[in-house]
Amino acid sequence: MPTRILSIFGTRPEAIKMAPLVKRLEADANIESVVCVTGQHQSMLNQVLDLFSIVPHYDLKLMTGNQTLNGLASRLLASLDDVLAAAQPDRVLVHGDTTTASAAALAAFHRRIPIGHVEAGLRTGNLMQPWPEEMNRRVVDVMSDLMFAPTASSKANLARESLHGRVIVTGNTVIDALNLTVARIDGDAALRAELDTRFEFLNNTLPVLLVTGHRRESFGDGFANICAALGELASTNAVQIVYPVHLNPNVRGPVQEALGAARNVHLIEPLDYLGFVRLMQRASIILTDSGGVQEEAPALGKPVLVMRDVTERPEAVSAGTVRLVGTQREVIVRSVMDLLEDARERDDFARRINPYGDGHASERIVAALAGRPFDEFGSTAALQARRVAQTASVL
Ligand code: UD1
Ligand code: UDP
User: Fold this and answer.
1) Could you confirm whether 97 is annotated as catalytic?
2) Which helix (H) or strand (E) is 225 found in, with range?
3) 199-351 matches 3-172+358-394 in CATH topology
4) Is 104 in the pocket of ligand 1 (CB under 6 A)?
5) Cα separation of 269 and 65, whole Å?
6) Annotation says 323 is catalytic
7) Is the CB of 41 under 6 A from ligand 1?
8) How far apart are CA 45 and CA 13, in angstroms?
9) pLDDT tens digit sequence for 151-196
10) For this structure, is 75 an active site residue?
11) How many whole angstroms from 215 Cα to the centroid of ligand 1?
């Protein structure tokens, strides 16, 4: 009898990071893959499902406009209980740090269903940053019997907490998703040309600063500062800003008001993943508060400035692939201008090794679930295999 695994996710980043894993689960003879999307996000989630051709067995469509955390969490708990009763999974998989992840884990725990946590163990040590995600990720780890930690340092965080589950270092599945997507774009000139038609508004003589921002802890003053910094940068005529604006009304309102009419600023709708990866490829610098972008952009050799005071991804700071700049106007402006003026520093970013994965995270997770042997990410055997593969691709 195959093991029935129910993957539950609901936001754009969870969908991107679960997509390559779901594809591998579907293809594995020892596993029966069932997918439930909660619809915590709606259009931003559907963009990803379409791109990776994932057809969920359950689609709860729970999003409401400007939803509250408690409203969403209570709808999730009630609806997921019915799904768990109907699907009767042997195991539930949840991802990361969202309200969907914490509610789904709690719903499964209440039914004594084992939980696997993908992207376990990231910590800032500060419950208010990112808020409420730091707490979500912690409570999921407490309830999980399998924790798929992306890096050795996330494993070390879990070891310090004396949790009951088994920890496996896998790399981050976002690199699997990114590699699949880059291969698609790089291998298809017609697709590239089609994607580039979406960016015909770009001025080919100006460097592109790609911006994303949506963190709840930055609502209010944080976003006002960020927008002031972007306005100031655009007014120098040294850079053009492209900002796919998150659909959260607490983001869209202030951003539109502050920058809607600014010169050299292009506020655009959220892009599907293909379009966003293409835009990352075309950017000179990326300024973001996103978790996923901190992991992806370095794999594309792009310098990343992170608009947060702390990050649960310290490996990137240590590796020199991202730099924290907070949300103060002057610091953001100075950091971007310094990088714009220093081509050597930008090249240095591009040369540093991305610590987040080798594109085989999903493979390791599925092997662990199916009881097959595998090498953990970062182990000597995995590094050796990576070197052999790199040599083969060079030859
Ligand atoms: C959520 C996650 C956050 C993740 C982010 C990714 C939590 C607590 N936070 O935050 O960890 O980084 O997603 O983007 O789970 N909306 C739409 N259409 C969409 C998506 C969102 O209209 O496709 C609007 C809705 O008005 C919705 C609001 O955005 O109510 C907020 O969405 P929500 O998922 O609650 O919060 P995020 O800030 O996106
Ligand atoms: N992304 C996308 N379209 C966009 C902006 C971002 O597909 O217009 C992707 C991005 O490549 C990354 C993910 O969405 O994989 C990040 O999502 P978000 O910033 O919303 O959430 P976080 O990573 O902070 O949880």
Assistant:
1) yes
2) helix 221-235
3) yes
4) no
5) 17
6) no
7) yes
8) 8
9) 999 999 999 999 999 999 999 999 999 999 999 999 999 999 999 9
10) no
11) 9
Annotated active-site residue 376? The verdict is no
Q: Domain 3-172+358-394: which topology?
A: Rossmann fold (3.40.50)
pLDDT tens profile 53-112: 999 999 999 999 999 999 999 999 999 999 999 999 999 999 999 999 999 999 999 999
Cβ–ligand 2 distance for 223 under 6 Å, the answer no
Q: Which of 216, 323, 352, 386 is catalytic?
A: 216
**Percent of the chain beyond pLDDT 70?**
96
Nearest CA to 383 out of 360, 351, 363 is that of 360
Fold of 199-351: Rossmann fold (3.40.50)
Is the dihedral angle over the CA atoms 264, 298, 199, 48 positive or is it negative? negative
Q: Is the pLDDT of residue 47 over 70?
A: yes
Look-up of token digits 């300024």: 287
The domains of the chain are located at 3-172+358-394, 199-351
Measure the CA–CA gap between 57 and 112, rounded to whole angstroms: 22
Q: Whose CA is nearest to atom 5 of ligand 1?
A: 11
200 catalytic? Reply is no
pLDDT over 90 at 306, yes or no? yes
**13 in ligand 2 pocket by Cβ < 6 Å?**
yes
* Å from CA of 59 to ligand 2 middle: 21
- Ligand number, closest to the Cα atom of 134: 1
With bands split at pLDDT 50, 70 and 90, how would you rate the model's confidence at 384? low
CA–CA distances in Å: residue 21 to residues 94, 202, 245: 11, 35, 27
Report whether pLDDT(230) > 60: yes
CA of 41 to the centre of ligand 1 (A): 6
Ligand nearest to the CA of 137: 1
